[in-house]
Inverse folding.
């Protein structure tokens, strides 16, 4: 493909990332509202978010193998169509059971986006531009995470219900999904269909997908680097999901901000995190993945520990919140490292494995930390987040130290595989 065509693929995939991440967190700014509406606890709404992530977790490898075996755009289509269907069901929910079922459908849809996105990005970028391609993609996802908080803040200010917020998100997703899938019809097969250059005689087939999906343990243990990154993704996801889901509760319950203001501030925090992603991608291309990964986790530990004090002055609180998206700074570096540790024919599978870690964190964090906030309070709960961040920093240090130093320190302009 031409450079213009490759940039178009990156742009289309980035938009899809925005939509999928909007669907992932659309309940987060509404936790308190939905708990009151359906007469359940905060932990129960966290469990609904956990259901979504459990489905994503279970479907990662099957969809990763399907992406590798047959068609990346087929998996992309499954993701956008079913994700939007689940969002519609969420907007029309009349009971807690309905809400759980809707989040199940959202999970089936969202499960396909990483297994489709990362192979598409790898095919549409070069070693010299891959860090920036991943950072642009991650930027779209981060803005998608911020969007529901902004939408809820706006609809609250207008006096509209929670359903109006979900319908707004759904409308954006459905229009973009149709545009994206139509646009991909013009993209070359060498991008949308798996290449055979590395293992032409061992290409997965559709018939092999179920059996290959059952070989999770062997796939994980086959690469120590991918295993380490999957565990790191799990810990990072616990931290990220807790911050995204319960920062509005922290601001309202711990610092006395109004609910609409808390959602607006959280949206600003996630938007700044999106900007940090772009900075992290550029620096990854220049100095290598290792230093960026370590810097991101150091900042995470410091900032979450400050939040847990519940005693920051308003100016300090604003600054810390805006910078607490610093965990996003290292995301392009982690993606670049996973890419370099993967054979081209295994990109869908390996990124599915890393996404399993992300999804498992999403299963665990919302209900567990919802329960902790209900029982031991906001300060202790966010203190535990800081402790998990410290463990993540130690693991990241181990991965950087033990991986091939040439692989980690070389710029993206040098062949990585």
């Amino acid at each position: 493909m031409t450079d213009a065509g490759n940039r178009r693929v990156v742009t289309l995939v980035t938009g899809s990332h925005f939509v999928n991440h909007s669907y992932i967190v659309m309940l987060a700014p509404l936790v308190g509202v939905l708990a009151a509406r359906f007469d359940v606890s905060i932990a129960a709404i966290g469990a609904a978010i956990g259901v979504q992530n459990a489905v994503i977790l279970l479907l990662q490898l099957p969809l990763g193998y399907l992406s590798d075996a047959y068609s990346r755009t087929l998996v992309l289509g499954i993701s956008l169509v079913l994700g939007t269907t689940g969002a519609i069901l969420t907007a029309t929910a009349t009971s807690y059971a309905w809400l759980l079922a809707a989040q199940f459908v959202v999970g089936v849809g969202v499960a396909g986006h990483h297994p489709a996105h990362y192979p598409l990005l790898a095919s549409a970028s070069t070693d010299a531009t891959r860090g920036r391609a991943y950072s642009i993609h991650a930027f779209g996802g981060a803005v998608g995470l911020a969007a529901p908080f902004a939408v809820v803040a706006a609809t609250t200010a207008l006096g509209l219900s929670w359903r109006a917020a979900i319908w707004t998100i759904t409308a954006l997703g459905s229009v973009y999904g149709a545009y994206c899938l139509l646009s991909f019809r013009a993209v070359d097969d060498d991008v949308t269909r798996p290449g055979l250059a590395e293992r032409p005689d061992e290409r997965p087939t559709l018939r092999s997908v179920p059996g290959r999906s059952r070989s999770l343990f062997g796939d994980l243990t086959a690469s120590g680097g991918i295993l380490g990154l999957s565990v790191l993704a799990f810990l990072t996801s616990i931290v990220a999901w807790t911050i995204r889901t319960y920062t509005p509760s922290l601001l309202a319950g711990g610092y006395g901000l109004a609910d609409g203001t808390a959602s607006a501030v959280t949206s600003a925090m996630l938007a700044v995190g999106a900007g940090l992603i772009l900075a992290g991608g550029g620096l990854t291309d220049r100095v290598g993945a290792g230093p960026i990964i370590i810097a991101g986790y150091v900042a995470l530990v410091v900032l979450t520990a400050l939040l847990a004090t519940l005693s920051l002055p308003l100016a300090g609180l604003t600054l810390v919140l805006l910078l607490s998206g610093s965990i996003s700074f290292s995301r392009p570096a982690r993606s670049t490292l996973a890419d370099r540790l993967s054979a081209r024919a295994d990109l869908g599978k390996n990124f599915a494995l890393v996404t399993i870690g992300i999804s498992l964190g999403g299963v665990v964090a919302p209900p567990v930390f919802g329960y902790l906030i209900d029982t031991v309070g906001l300060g202790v709960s966010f203190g535990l987040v800081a402790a998990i961040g410290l463990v993540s920093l130690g693991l990241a240090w181990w991965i950087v130290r033990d991986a091939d130093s040439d692989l980690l320190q070389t710029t993206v302009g040098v062949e990585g595989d």
